[in-house]
Every structure is written in structure tokens, then in C-alpha cells.
Amino acid sequence: MLLYISRCCFRNVRSTTFHLKEIQKSVLRMSSSLMTTSSCNPIAAVCQVTSTADKNVNFSLCQELVQQAQKEGACMVFLPEAFDYIGTNREETLQLSETLEGDTIQRYSQMTRDLGIWVSLGGFHERGHTWETDRRIYNSHVIINSEGSIMAVYRKCHLFDVELPEKKVSLRESAFTIPGPKILEPLQSPIGKLGLAICYDVRFPELSLALMRQGAEILTYPSAFTVATGTAHWEVLLRARAIETQTFVIAAAQVGRHNSSRTSYGHSLIVDPWGDIIGRCGGDKPGYALAEIDLNKLRRVRTDMPVQKHRRENELYLNDWKQHL
Ligand SMILES: O=C(O)CNC(=O)[C@H](CS)NC(=O)CCC(=O)C(=O)O
């Protein structure tokens, strides 16, 4: 398989010396179970891939990227929504789905154990408990730690049912997906406290605010944005979520042509709490970008401009806005 690995942008990566990297690698070799939050430089890798309906090919591409990123010092790697596959039609999408106990998650579990890193699997087509009766799936963001254990499963709450005739966009996610019932409390990872969301969720700032209030230091939006909506909104939405919540934002994206009727925008991003882009991929091919998640930066931004303390929503408008709709 022809692999294009582009190490897109490389700004703000901590300048780890060769010596430090070697020490880190030998620690990994000794035992992945020794990996603790403190033994790992907080380097995140945001990936982008072009999933098709071939699950094995998709897995190989993701594996290649994760391995490369880990070699370059990443301790957590982020894969996009539909990292497992993108079906050509509804029936195929449903047919290819698996449970969390299936082959796909098993293979990723093994991978994280072998490499001693954490992964974010941005959108797994998950057969729910009611599959036998309703043949519906969840769009699930699964976090696996360096010991191969599932640490969290967030099921996408906002489904993308959108018709934009002028832009030739027509997708009805609810035709095969059950909306998730709840948001998850942010979880500790080697790079900071992660708030989990998926793709279209980025358009709902109340979700990002809720996650930030529960302690999120990093918001994650693994995505498969359409080219039309991505061109218009992608970067603006992600930077706005980072700026208003003063958190890091990591958004792994699908990129390029998946099949004759579907193409994705790409441009995977890592944004810091000031809104600066510190890691970026292009819009044409698979690859990854690395960035340091420096939580001191987050503290500085929040101290210097205490936006969260300045909120007056209870007093001004919280119980009032619906009557104006
Ligand atoms: O279909 C699958 O297999 C995986 N799921 C997706 O790709 C989802 C639902 S169709 N895509 C989006 O939410 C795009 C959102 C978007 O483009 C926007 O908000 O502008």
C-alpha cells in the first residue's frame, strides 16, 4: 500500500533532545505498564486518514500513523471519526459495524499495549445492546490506555441530519445511528483532562462549556467534515471553542475521497487555549501533526483573562432565552 505520511506542521513541539527521547523509548521498552502520566512528555499527535469500506486497509493506515507518531515522541494519538470505515451506503455501514468486544477494538487494544501509548478512536461504528431488534448503531468515541483498557466511551449526542441542496450536501446520520444519551465527565489522560465530543457536536458551544466546567483541559472533536461545511466553518468553530472555553482543542479529521459520493475536508488541527493553531495537517492526504500540550499555558491564559469568572449568565439571561425564539 502506498502511504503518504506528511508531518504537516511542527510548531511548538517541545524540543526534546535526542538523549531524552532515547530514555523515553527505553522506558517504553522495559514495560508499558510502567508508563505513568509523569514519565511521558505531553505530546499529542493528531492524525488524518481516508477511510474506505475496507476495514483492513483502514487499520493498516492508522497503525502506520500511530507507530510513526509514537516514534517521534507522541504519548497519545488521536484518530478521526470513522477511523474504522466509511461505508458506501446505509446497509454497508450497518453491516460492517461491531461491538466493543469485536476485532477492531481488540486490535487497537493490542496496538496500544505494544506501543505503550494512549489512543483516541474518534468515531467507532458501535453495535448497541439493542442491535438484534433495531439494527441501529452508536457513533462512539473510544479512549484506550497504554495497557489496552477501554477508559471511556462517549456516544455522539448531536446527529448530522442536514440537507444543503446548493452545496450538494445531504446526510442523514439518524437513519443508522442512535443519538447518545449523555455527556461524559472529562477523564485524566497522559496529556491532560480530556472532554469527549464528536464532529457535529462542535457546533453546540453549550456542550464544550459543560465539559470545561467539569474540568476539561482538552476538548476533542474527531471529525469527518464535508468539504462544503469544512471550507466555511471548520477552523472558525474549532478556534472559537478553544478561545471561549480556554482549553486546548484536538480535532482529527477524515480527508479526501472515500467513495464516489463522499469526500472529507481534512485539515486536522490542534489549537491552544489562546486560539493559536499549534498543529495542523493539510487538506489533501493522510498524515499527522504533533504538538506539546503545555497545561501551564492554559493556566496562564485563564489567569490573565478570567473569562469564566466574568460570566453573568444566571443573572442576565439563562432562564430567559427560550422565550425569544
Ligand atoms: O457516516 C459515518 O460513517 C460517520 N459519521 C459521519 O461522518 C458524520 C455523520 S454523517 N459526519 C458529520 O457529522 C459531519 C458534520 C459536518 O460536516 C458539519 O458539521 O459540517
From TrEMBL:
<keyword id="KW-0378">Hydrolase</keyword>
<feature type="domain" description="CN hydrolase">
    <location>
        <begin position="41"/>
        <end position="295"/>
    </location>
</feature>
<protein>
    <recommendedName>
        <fullName>Deaminated glutathione amidase</fullName>
        <ecNumber>3.5.1.128</ecNumber>
    </recommendedName>
</protein>
<dbReference type="InterPro" id="IPR045254">
    <property type="entry name" value="Nit1/2_C-N_Hydrolase"/>
</dbReference>
<dbReference type="InterPro" id="IPR036526">
    <property type="entry name" value="C-N_Hydrolase_sf"/>
</dbReference>
<dbReference type="Pfam" id="PF00795">
    <property type="entry name" value="CN_hydrolase"/>
</dbReference>
<dbReference type="GO" id="GO:0110050">
    <property type="term" value="F:deaminated glutathione amidase activity"/>
</dbReference>
<dbReference type="InterPro" id="IPR001110">
    <property type="entry name" value="UPF0012_CS"/>
</dbReference>
<dbReference type="InterPro" id="IPR003010">
    <property type="entry name" value="C-N_Hydrolase"/>
</dbReference>
<comment type="similarity">
    <text>Belongs to the carbon-nitrogen hydrolase superfamily. NIT1/NIT2 family.</text>
</comment>
